[in-house]
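<instruction>
Derive structure tokens from the sequence
<data>
Labelled lines for chain and fold:
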Amino acid sequence: MKLNSDENMLNINLDSFEVIGLKDMDRVKLMNRIDSKYTFSIGQLSSIIAQLQPYYYVVEIAAKKWSAYETLYYDTSDYRLYHKHQNGALNRYKIRHRTYVDSHLGFLEVKFKNNKGRTNKERIKALAVPYSWEENQFCFLEKELNFDPQTLKPVLWINYKRLTLVNKMSAERVTIDVSMEFIKDGVSQTLNNLVIAEVKQEKKQNSPFVKVMKTLHLREGSISKYCLGVCYTQTDIKRNNFKEKLNNLKYIL
């Protein structure tokens, strides 16, 4: 089930938020950053959003505050990138193509998490979704990766709706993702009751969103959307180190 473009479908009133557009977001590109993730139930979202209104702008694109994202993830045939994450390895990659549906943009992206816990993202424009690499895409990947890009193949679609908040006072972005849909081999699974929120900052610090999470006793830490999607669509894959997180998600759902 896809989320209706009207945010009132979530019983959330965003009218009191000050609005900014994409052109106003240069100060919070945060291509090198610290990420902190939180998961909670969709039933908690309205109350959380109401507490954030004085401190954040909401991003609006094409007259919509909830934006549609369609993302294709790439991995090796033996899911090497997934297993590095599952094993807790740092200096790890995620490779994906993301379509920003409402702004009609597409990018091939490489995310690298280093051994200091920082995430660096590099990307190039690619409106069409690549199922094999064009020359400029191969050169980009070859430059960013420490392995052969030809070993990568498309493995999983993840689609969702995103609300983006921008801190009025500091370089911080908060993304709130709902209506998660995983698609593999034409089979779709949805997690409509789950919210995945991510705080993106230059350096880790308290912020209005983090303070609200602490007040509600919602602890930082969640499985990545890619790893969650693999766990939900690959029943025979190793997931020992994700068991506690998956059990917590079952409780939320």
